[in-house]
Structures are given as structure tokens and as C-alpha cells.
Amino acid sequence: MKKRIVITGLGTLNAIANNVPDFAVALQAGACGIGAIELFDTAAFSSQTGGQVKNFIPRDYIPRNFSIKRMSRADMLSFAATLEALRDAGLYPLPEELKEEMGVVIGGGAGGLLEAENFYGDLLKKNGKNAKFSKLSALFCASSADRIAATLGLAGPKSTFMTACSGSATALGYARDLILNGHASIMLAGGVEPMCRITYAAFNALKSVDPETCRPFDKNRAGLSLGEAAAIMVLEPLDTALIRGAKIYGEVLGYGITCDSYHMTAPDEQASGAVRSMQAALKDSGLSLEDIDYINAHGTATPINDVMETKAIKEVFGKRAYSIPVSSTKSMHAHTLGAAGALEGIVSVLALQHDFIPPTINYQESDPQCDLDYVTAGSRKANLRTVLSNSFAFGGNNTTVIFGKYSERGAVNG
């Protein structure tokens, strides 16, 4: 029997909450965090809105014994989420004996691009005089994982996944595998994505951003809303968690990774990669189609993606697809790109813990091609045992992760 890997700590900052307890409340309330962006001027773009982390004052989250001088916004967000997750897991301050066997795996994208943009702006304004170089060391996308490991003194495995919107979902699965294969005894896993001008401009240039707010699966959906977030989980073997009396949120039951081999930005409309991703996760978890209670959809609100994902779900689950609740929480916290898989992983775990299905908000008119139960009338109480979470990224990078409610009896279906 495969060793059971459980989730014992959670940490997040995102557009609707700056900590996990508030995030759970906001999800159940159907809160919308999509609004005006304050980090940079959006006047030149067709869209002026997004899901920005609000009221983020780094020293409110990161104690002064940790230096933040050379940290980017992404580094600070991810480190703040890491500290919340460690506290939640009962591992802060971090015991010295754990550091050598603890690792960190992060999904990311923009890294320190916001700081690089600001630096370049200062450089132009000041003709090269007195522009501050201190933040440029955080430019690279791997910086957040590097900062977490170096600041905490971790000596276990360290990796960064840059498969766009599936990066942090893959990070969760890879972290689980590292523990299963004996390469680490405990892992920090998740993702971070900051708002920056280049990313915002690129999605506007692709005309994939809704100028108002995203409406997943709605007939009149016009694109996604960009967001930023950090989301971190603490993963460890069940026996270790029980020995130290840790709170157990749930289990990582399985995951699947596939590639469309189709297009750099558009999903394969035949949905073959998405289908195989879900099937691979089901096989890895040992679950049957009947065991899945809720699907947290990738649900970007782009016209092609939502149809493709609906088609994939129906192909995998057959007639049962119509009785499985599906929702896209991107309608609330926006699309957080490299952080999306981990953030929606936390959504999935909170849904299991609190027995509710978060809603797809902003939905107004049904689409004949999107005909599943998208939970559009507010959050719904439900006795959940499992959640399947999809992340389908640019380049055809697909990852599906299945989470289960912790049970002392063992298997979810046992």
C-alpha cells in the first residue's frame, strides 16, 4: 500500500483574503476580489481590473528577524504564505532537526518582473543615476523558492516549476512524490504569481482578458481576469503527522500530468490532454469515477477553454458528469497563473474541511455548450469526500490533482 501523504498546514494571500481562515469565509460567501489595479497604470490597456492582493504591508506578515531587503513582491508574498503554513502546521519556529530533510517546490511565472519594470522606469527617469539595483537579484522565477529555502535554512530538495498555469499544481504532485520516494521527510509546496505590466500587457494583447470581470461558463463570457496570489501547503507522511499530533486537513490522493502538443496558447478543442490528465489522476489515486464528489474546474472564462473543459469532464465521467458539481473559483480570486493550481488546491482542501462547494459567481446566462452543474446560485453545503482540481496551462501543460478528506479508516472509498 502506498504511503499516505497528508496536508498539515496552509497559507495564502490572494485577492479575497490575506490568510486561510478569511479565505474560507470569503469562498463560502462568494466574495469577488476583482477590481481596480493599484500596482501600476492600466490606462493603456483594454482592461483596467484584476485580482490584486490588497493591504499587503510586508512587515505585518514577516517578522523583522527576517531580511526582506532583496525580496521581490513575489518573494515576500510567498514567504508570508510559507510562515502562515508553518505556523498552521505547528512547525514555527522550524525545528533544527527537520531542516535537512525539508524541501520546497514552487510553481511560478513572473518572479521579480514588477521590480525589474520599476527599476527600468527609474533608470530612464534618472538617466542611470541612483537607480536601485537591490531588488534585481530577485528577478528570476526561481527566486521565491531560493529565498524560502535560504531564509529558513532548508537543505532538502528545491525546485521551481514554470509550466504556466499548471506550475503549482505540478509542484504539489512532485512534492508528494519526493516524500513517497524518500527524498524528503516533509515538503513546502505551492505557488506564487505577482501582478506585473508585462504579463498584463501580454494577456491584453492576446485579447483573452475580460474588460469587466470574468464569467466562467457563462454564454457571454469574454475572457479571464488576471490575478496575483501566494499559496503554500505543508505535506508530510501520515505517520509523522500523527506522531507529532498535527492537525490534518486532508490527503493528496493522486495526480496526473499530460501535454496537448497542440498550440502555445490555445487548448486542444478535442480535449484529449485534459481527458488524459484526469484519467491519470484517477488511476494514480486508485479511485473510481463514482468516488469524485466535486470538480474545481480550471474555468478561465475564455470561450474555448470552458467548452473544452466541459467536453473533457463529460468524456471522462460519462452520464455521471451531469451529477457532479463543478465550479470555477477564478470568478472570485481571478486567474493567478503560476499560483493557480496551489491556490485552487487550498480551495479544494477548505471545501473538504468545511463541507461546502464554492460557487461560480458572475454567471448570468447559460451556454448550451457548457451544460454541467456549475454551482451558480451561491455556495452549496455538501458532504464531500474527494475533490478533483484541474489546471490546464499555455503550451498544453495539463495537471490534475485529487484531494481527499482525511479518514482514520484509510482509503476514501473504504
What this model shows, in words?
By secondary structure, this protein is an alpha/beta fold. It folds into two domains: 5-243, Thiolase/Chalcone synthase (Peroxisomal Thiolase, Chain A, domain 1, 3-Layer(aba) Sandwich), CATH 3.40.47.10; 253-404, Peroxisomal Thiolase, Chain A, domain 1, CATH 3.40.47.10. It has helices spanning 20-29, 73-88, 96-99, 113-125, 143-152, 167-180, 197-205, 238-243, 272-285, 303-317, 330-333, 340-354, and strands at residues 5-13, 35-36, 49-50, 102-108, 158-161, 186-193, 229-237, 250-259, 294-296, 326-327, 356-357, 380-381, 386-393, 397-404. The strands form three sheets. The protein has a ten-stranded mixed beta sheet, with helices on both faces. Strands 2-3 form a two-stranded antiparallel ribbon. Strand 9, helix 10 (303-317) and strand 10 (326-327) form a beta-alpha-beta unit. Helix 1 (20-29) packs across helix 12. The longest helix has 16 residues, at 73-88. The two termini are 13 Å apart.
Offer a few descriptive terms.
414 residues; alpha/beta; Peroxisomal Thiolase, Chain A, domain 1; 2 domains; ten-stranded mixed beta sheet; two-stranded antiparallel ribbon; 12 helices; 14 strands
